[in-house]
Amino acid sequence: MTTMTIAPATGGFSADDLDRFAGRADAYDDHADLTLEELNVRAGYITDLHPNLAYTQGYDAYVKSVQYEQELISGRMEVA
Fold first, then answer.
1. Per-residue pLDDT averaged across 48-64, rounded?
2. Cα-to-chain-centroid distance, residue 75
3. CA–CA distance, 22 with 11 (Å, rounded to integer)
4. How far apart are CA 51 and CA 76, in angstroms?
5. What is the residue-averaged pLDDT of the chain?
6. Cα 40 to Cα 23: distance, rounded to the nearest angstrom
7. pLDDT digits (tens, 9 = 90+) for 15-49
8. Burial class (CB in 10 A: 0-12, 13-18, 19+), 57
9. Which residue has the higher pLDDT, 78 or 21?
10. Cα(26)–Cα(40) distance, rounded to whole angstroms?
């Protein structure tokens, strides 16, 4: 019988990192069904009401990246 070392399921990420990833993933999923304006409203509610700060940071970071991308595409913002 061989000896195996079992890798941790988290891959070495902290609990906060995993919560941020979960927030970003949920925002990504919501983006499939919601407009940018609706995502911003939902991000505001999540920021105000969700008990997990890291989750809200991840959700908000994804929404801000979508907003930034839209502004670049539409020409409302220039790359510095």
1. 96
2. 24
3. 15
4. 34
5. 89
6. 14
7. 999 999 999 999 999 999 999 999 999 999 999 99
8. middle
9. 21
10. 13
And the tokens for 45? 């509610």
Q: CA-CA distance, 71 to 65, in Å (whole number)?
A: 10
User: pTM of this prediction?
Assistant: 0.81
Q: What would the 3-class secondary structure string for the chain be?
A: CCCCCCCCCCCCCCHHHHHHHHHHHHHHHHHCCCCHHHHHHHHHHHHHHCCCHHHHHHHHHHHHHHHHHHHHHHCCCCCC
How far apart are the C-alpha atoms of 7 and 25, rounded to whole Å?
A: 23
Among 24, 22, 6, CA closest to 14: 22
Give the pair of three-digit tokens for residue 67: 């907003």
